[in-house]
Write a structure and sequence with these properties.
Length: 286
């Protein structure tokens, strides 16, 4: 199933290009001004830039590797000083200065969450390097005190990342509706985008150390179940057999994804292989 889901992150774009290139216009489309279209493009540019930045700011696999090393209490081969992943300064400048295509409250919330994420990230990697320093001088007592601190920072980073994506969600969906206005596959593409975002959130929750927030995980799974049910009820789009087949394949993979996550969750634990597989899902979905 993992291989089947590897295309999720780029699927909507592929389908959109295929449908747009057909020359078929939607029978009933809204009227949008040039200003509205330009604003929608700006929102999507900010969203795309933010996704790229978040991918490098918080690499869940790397963060979990750091925490996994700390959990061994020094009973592992010594690591060198760890440098946090590099990210684009240009992208970070844009992220903390969202434009007027967002209202003032949204601009303020985005800036606040990004700034807090930068701070928590810096503290996390600084803490790990301190941990390595304590191990080097064999001060295990001081080193052990840093693991719960980094657990807390990991949860904080995940929360800030989730907050940013939740804040952006209604704006990006509104922008996509405008930009996909004449696309006959508009509703199918929007449905896939919603589900992809929810799947990413589930994966990040499953990978979270020291443990997932089970109440939130249950909520996200239920949200995906509802989204899948709604998507299944969308009418067939005539004249686009290949796009509709790909859409149905996406829904089948999403359903298999739900079953796999529920199966793992029911056991109450994740094996190393399953965690690695979930990590690969997360990387493919970012």
């Amino acid at each position: 199933m993992r291989k089947n889901l590897m295309f999720v992150g780029v699927f909507a774009i592929t389908l959109m290009l295929a449908a747009c290139g057909s020359g078929v216009r939607k029978e009933f489309s809204e009227k949008y001004s040039a200003t509205e279209v330009e604003q929608a493009n700006q929102v999507m540019n900010y969203y795309t830039t933010s996704l790229a930045l978040l991918k490098n700011l918080v690499v869940e696999k790397d963060v979990n590797s750091v925490l996994g090393y700390m959990e061994q209490g020094g009973n592992a081969p010594m690591l060198t000083t760890v440098v946090s992943p590099v990210f684009s300064q240009k992208d970070s400048a844009l992220a903390v200065n969202p434009g007027t295509y967002f209202n003032e409250e949204t601009q303020r919330n985005l800036k606040q969450n990004f700034m807090q994420l930068f701070q928590a990230r810096k503290q996390f990697y600084t803490g790990f390097n301190q941990y390595l320093s304590f191990l080097k001088v064999k001060d295990k007592t001081a080193a052990d005190k840093l693991l719960p601190v980094n657990y807390r920072l990991n949860v904080e980073m995940a929360e800030y990342k989730e907050n940013i994506l939740d804040i952006l969600s209604p704006f990006t969906e509104g922008a996509q509706k405008i930009l996909l206005n004449d696309n006959p596959m508009k509703e199918q593409i929007l449905a896939m985008n919603r589900m992809s975002v929810t799947m990413q959130s589930i994966l990040r929750q499953c990978m979270r150390k020291p443990a997932p927030d089970m109440a939130r995980l249950d909520m996200k799974i239920m949200k995906l179940v509802i989204q899948l049910d709604i998507a299944k009820r969308l009418p067939m789009v005539k004249g686009h057999p290949q796009e509709m087949k790909t859409f149905r394949d996406f829904l089948a993979n999403a359903e298999a994804f739900i079953k796999e996550v529920q199966h793992i969750k029911a056991r109450g634990s994740y094996t190393a292989d399953e965690m690695a597989a979930l990590g690969e899902y997360g990387l493919s979905l970012n």
